[in-house]
């Protein structure tokens, strides 16, 4: 098979193109992406990252902020008793707001899909605790095995214990009426 035309030709380097200017303009446009809203509101775009973080009382480099003592490294050096110069914190509210936000309890956002809840309720309503029968049911679209169905029911029990108890309690009168 013949080669495509122009593939074997040597590519020429463009000497007239100023690549430094291209890269510099792309770097200038990129601003730091800040995830924390407290830092974002206190950020001054006219200052460097180090200056902004120092004003907020945050560390730019954690290794410099909390150095490893020389004793742990195996070297014993006597200190002069001088502490390194502390920087002036002009925006202490940023750290206090971040600490308050971190101290809040985490919301439990574990929920099950409505389809899974309906599926589990249907299976329990029609088959009780017979998992082999549930696996053969026509509504078992995903062809779950008895163990998989049992696991889904247990997940439902753990996520919604009150709702599960009420559902089971509502099923008992129906079974008494049928007999």
How would you describe what is shown here?
The protein contains 10 helices and no strands. By secondary structure, it is an all-alpha fold. Among the domains are: 66 residues, no CATH class; 58 residues. Helix 7 packs across helix 9 and helix 9 crosses helix 10. The longest helix has 18 residues.
Helix-strand layout with pairing:
Elements lengths: L18 H11 L7 H6 L6 H8 L5 H4 L4 H4 L19 H11 L10 H14 L3 H6 L9 H14 L1 H18 L1
Helix pairs in contact: 7-9, 9-10
Q: What features would you highlight for this structure?
A:
single chain, 179 residues, mainly alpha, 54% helix, 0% strand, flat, nucleus, Ribosome_biogenesis_Nop16, Nucleolar protein 16
Q: Distance N terminus to C terminus?
A: 81 Å
- Uncertain regions spanning at least 5 consecutive residues: none
In DSSP terms, counting alpha (H) and pi (I) runs of 4 or more, how many helices? 10
- Radius of gyration computed on alpha carbons: 33 Å
Question: What structural class do the secondary elements suggest?
Answer: mainly alpha
Main pleated-sheet profile:
none
Tally of extended strands?
Answer: 0
């Amino acid at each position: 098979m013949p080669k495509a035309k122009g593939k074997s030709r040597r590519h020429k380097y463009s000497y007239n193109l100023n690549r430094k200017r291209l890269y510099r303009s792309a770097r200038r446009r990129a601003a730091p992406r800040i995830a924390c809203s407290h830092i974002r509101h206190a950020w001054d775009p006219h200052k460097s990252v180090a200056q902004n973080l120092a004003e907020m009382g945050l560390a730019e480099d954690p290794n410099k902020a909390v150095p490893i003592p020389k004793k742990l490294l195996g070297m014993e050096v006597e200190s002069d008793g001088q502490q390194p110069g502390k920087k002036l914190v002009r925006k202490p509210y940023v750290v206090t707001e971040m600490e308050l936000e971190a101290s809040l309890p985490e919301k439990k956002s574990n929920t099950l899909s409505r389809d899974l809840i309906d599926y589990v309720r249907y299976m329990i309503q029609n088959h009780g605790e017979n998992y082999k029968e549930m696996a053969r049911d026509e509504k078992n679209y995903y062809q779950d095995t008895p163990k998989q169905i049992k696991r889904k029911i247990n997940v439902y029990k753990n996520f919604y214990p009150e709702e599960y108890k009420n559902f089971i309690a509502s099923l008992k009168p129906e079974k008494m009426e049928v007999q």
